[in-house]
Each structure stands twice: as C-alpha cells, then as structure tokens.
Amino acid sequence: MPQNKKVLAALLALGSFVSTSAFAESGKVLDQNDFVGISFWIISMALVAATAFFFLETQRVAGKWKTSLTVSGLVTLVAATHYFYMREVWIQTASTPTVYRYIDWLITVPLLITEFYLILRAIGKASAGIFWRLIGGTTAMLVLGYMGEAGYMGVWPAFILSTLAWFFVIYEIYAGEAGKMGTTQAPPAVQAAYKTMRAIVVFGWAVYPIGYFAGYLTGGNPADSMSTLNIVYNFADVVNKIGFGVIIWNVAVTSSESH
Ligand SMILES: *C/C=C(C)/C=C/C=C(C)/C=C/C1=C(C)CCCC1(C)C
After folding, report:
1. Which of 50, 66, 130, 182 could form a disulfide with 76 if both were Cys (CB 3.0 to 4.6 A apart)?
2. pLDDT of 1-10, one tens digit each?
C-alpha cells in the first residue's frame, strides 16, 4: 500500500529528528527546577505525538481533506524540530532562542493561515487574493515582531505595527472575502470549524502579543521577563499549533464520515 509506505517514511523521518541536538557534546542537562526548560521539553514531545497522529489520520479522511491534515502535521513537525533546538539553547545558555522561534513562526504561521484557504477551496472557488492577503499580513506581522525582539527597531513601534498587521488578517477572515465565503457557502460542519479556527486567530494568537508585552514592555527584571515570555509563547504554541490541528482533524473526520 503506497499510502501506508508514505506515512511510514514520514514517521521515520520524524524519528530521526527526535535525537537532534544543537549542543550534543556539552554536559548540561535539564535542571529539575527549570520550569521554562521543562515546558520546552513537554511541548516538544507533544508536537512529536501530534505529528504522528495527524499524518496517520490522513488515511482515514476523504481525499479533499487530506491536504489540510497533512499541513497540520507539517506545522507540528517543523515546530517540534525547532523546539528541540530551542530547548537546548535554553538549557545550555539560559537565553531566549529568539531566532529559532521566529524561523519556526515564519514557516508555521503561513502554513496555518493557508489552512483557511484550503478549507475554503475544499468547499468552493476561493480566490488567490484571499491566499496572498493572508500570507502577506502574517509575514508582515512576524517580520515586524522580529525586528522589535532582535533590536533592529524600537520594541514599541514594532509592537504596534505588528499588531496592525495581525488586525488586517483578522479583518480578512471575518469581514473580508474569506469571511464571507466561510460563513455563507460552507456546509454547517465546515462553517462551525471555520468559526472556531478564526476565533483561535483572535484569542489564541492574542497570547503572543501578551507574551511580547510581558517580555519587553513592562520594565520588569530582564531574567524574569524572559522566563515569562518563553512560558507564554510555549503555552500559546500548544493551543495554536496542536489545538488548531485537532479542530481541522475533527471537521475532516466528521465530514468524511457523513458522506
Ligand atoms: C505557531 C505560531 C504562531 C501561531 C505564532 C503566532 C504569532 C503571533 C500572532 C505574533 C504576534 C505578535 C504581535 C501581534 C505583536 C507583537 C509581536 C508578535 C510577533 C509577538
């Protein structure tokens, strides 16, 4: 069965990433009181499990849902790999792995936002404009966020401009062309999923600017601020990468079984 072989190959590739370590030769291990490090560890494993799950479940759903589920698995695969590195950076150096975090986001966020486009395409004729507005908005949001966190730009202006780009994306999925299509043309189960997914882009994604704010804009002790920033970002990734994928999995399975 070629389908099974493909899934198996993907899982083997995943397995080889599990041992990936940025600093294999240094002797430092996870400290039992390092709760930020522990959160990196737990989430990296949850992402591995979620990836295996999404890839395996592609076999169970109807053809038009397979791409959506595969993309969910790619998001958690890319994130898992980055989490192994981020975990090591944190454990070995106690510093914030900003560059890995943003490389991860720069790949996973466009993939996540593409899920809206894929869902709309599974139900009708979605225009390419929808796709490019979603990709453009999220990319601007992330580039500006990185410029703030990495010191290429003031932390406040980066925060404000990045938030505006996020609002632009929210506008598109609520009141723009995507929003209209997702809430009128789709069958009820898909409409429900679409609405939950866009609520995640508002409420789940809102956790990231809160993390940024806590990390850079409260004027608190830098070490504490960085611990809070990492815990908040890590928590947000569980909701927005694994939780988001589970919603897509649910609508894919429900809609496949009802045909
Ligand atoms: C899997 C990773 C996801 C879904 C990451 C999402 C990240 C954001 C929504 C970040 C947003 C930001 C702002 C709205 C303002 C401050 C800077 C950011 C980049 C943290």
Report:
1. 50
2. 566 676 677 6
